[in-house]
Amino acid sequence: MPELVRLTQHGDVAVITIDNPPVNALSPGVPEGIDAAVSEAAADARVRAIVVIGAGSTFIAGADIREFGKIVAGERPKLTLLPYLLTIEDSPKPVVMAIHGQALGGGLEVAMAGHYRVLAPKAQVGQPEVKLGIIPGAAGTQRLPRLAGVVKALEMCAEGNPIGALEAMSLGIADKLIEGDLLEGAVEFAHTVADKPAPKTRERNEKLKGVPAAVFQVAREQARRKARGMRAPLAAIDAIEAATQLDFFAGCEEEARLFNECLFSTEAQAMIHVFFGERAVAKIPGLPKDVKPIEIRRAAVIGAGTMGGGIAMNYANAGIPVIVKETTQEALDRGIGIIRGNYAKTVAKGKLSQEALDQRMALMTPQLTYDGFEQADIITEAVFENMAVKKQIFAELDEIAKPDAILASNTSTLDIDEIAAATSRPATVIGTHFFSPANVMKLLEVVRGKASSPQAIATAMGLGKKLGKVAVLAGNCHGFIGNRMVAPYFREAYFLLEEGASVEAVNRALYDFGMAMGPLAVDDLAGLDIGWAIRKERAAYAKPGVRVPLVADRLCEQGRFGQKSGRGWSKYDESRKASADPETAALIETVARAAGMKRRSISSEELVDRCVYALINEGARVLADGIALRAVDIDITYIYGYGFPAWRGGPMFYADTVGLPKVLARIEEFKKTHGADLWEPAPLLKRLVAEGKRFKDLDQQKEGRG
Length: 706
Ligand code: CAA
Prior knowledge:
The protein is of the alpha/beta class. The protein is 50% helix and 11% strand. The structure holds acetoacetyl-coenzyme A.
């Protein structure tokens, strides 16, 4: 095995190279290696200065996140970096940190213990720990405000976003930008500071003085808003406030206390589960390793409506030329107008340049014909949910697309095999289900048909990455992973209204649970007519005598389709601000009483449990049916596609944290009251409870780790 840390000599400068692929995480052995190398170099009379650099594509991506799980599980790997960082900071010879790629978390903490930092122009530095539900644990909250100032340190530690090299320079985190060879530049810089007193970050207290209390107050208010429900951002703010009140070492102790409090929280376990989950979903068991995805150079999209337009924007954003086809000039003009308007809003916010807008629009070719489709590597159909129309389109594509082009459907519910059967090449047909707004939402649900080839699957999964999304592979059934599970979630929200809860109470309970929006607010945003059309189509499959929601259809019959018609479950003003609608409340009550239902007061706990446990129970079936590969695939689907709070880890992880026996008992209770047709516990859930296992254990078993 190659050495994790190497010490070499470049004239009178010692170079310490960290080499722990893929990202030079601070795994056991790395901090010790740095410590030993610094001590050795410091003691070497030939050495006048020291450079620390990362091998491969990055400096240091932080602590080894896998170690955190071990600690929580009761193992005690040595984690604390602090003493090693003091060895660096107390080195009598100046230590220059040479940063390319990323210096994140513990990586930035190591860098800040050095006396100088030189950065490659594309380098990024950051304290992303809150994204794992924790805070910096090696004096990051104490050293960063000393370099960058309290306000910026609060933002970086509480929000977790990295900053670029130029900003790091302007803030005082970095001392020099190095164009060209980083090591050469760093060694040259080291010569200029050799033999001079080395400034210790922990002693630089100027930027900590005179910070008004209001700064922390504002940071806390922002954290409560931007990271609703999370503890870690608030803990990070507390730790930085401590830096302004205590000396460095006492501040470190306070940071350690807060770090430990976070590390052992369910929030951290959930966020770490999501970090690895995001990467796990890209791994498809059984997909041959040598399968080559098709390179996507040109794309075409059929439909310039809300979804088609958003999908076309994705391609253009990724620099891929895209044809956008509609059936009428009017629809085409409207669609392209909306795309331009969306980009213009981003320009107005200062997040995109006018030049970039022009470039993206130039990548789009709006047209009414199939001209040029024969050159497309992927064609995405995004017309409305109607099987006959989709089959017609795929039959036409079969005639014109090149033989290996991927024919993708954006269907959100329909049978991908039936669509594929309209072509003579079902192996190239696959579902790529985007979520609205498609240019914003991070999830791409890839739906594999029974004939989809490994190449089609690999291409669609790779497409997700190329478009900056997280792709999850789903099997083919009505609604796939996401919409199949959401059906019982909405069903319960509707039932609760009929049983006595108000629209506002249902929305509020689920919002407070952490969902991005309450279910009825989502319904109003998506358009109630969508669910109405699906219910009509699915009515033929309904089991006689089983309760169905009554009020949603009645609202639609009155033309109340949600935000787009100004009224749905709630009322909306011109700026689409919602308020309670007494007419909806009256309608719900009338319909419920006419159906002989007893109205009652319902606790928020029941509102949440009914909706979320319906999701979990269906999730267990989705898993047992092989529609989702792993429980974590469901979690990632729900976090990135449906606004489930990441800090709860997704629905299946949440069920694990509640305890599956407790979840099962509650579902049994609901079954007693509402009947087995709606609430029969999923056999997989019962099996796991009987075996004393969690969904997570099931995933680990599949990976061969359980
Ligand atoms: N620990 C362990 N494994 C890590 C890791 C870390 N800090 N960072 C990345 N990895 C692993 C990933 O899991 C992935 O493994 P697989 O290939 O087995 O899936 C592999 O490294 C490559 O990572 P990515 O696929 O994410 O590669 P990328 O090039 O897209 O992104 C990155 C690279 C920007 C560094 C990204 O991996 C990242 O953001 N990593 C996490 C950084 C972070 O959160 N650091 C803080 C850690 S906590 C801390 O440091 C606490 C403290 O104060 C001491």
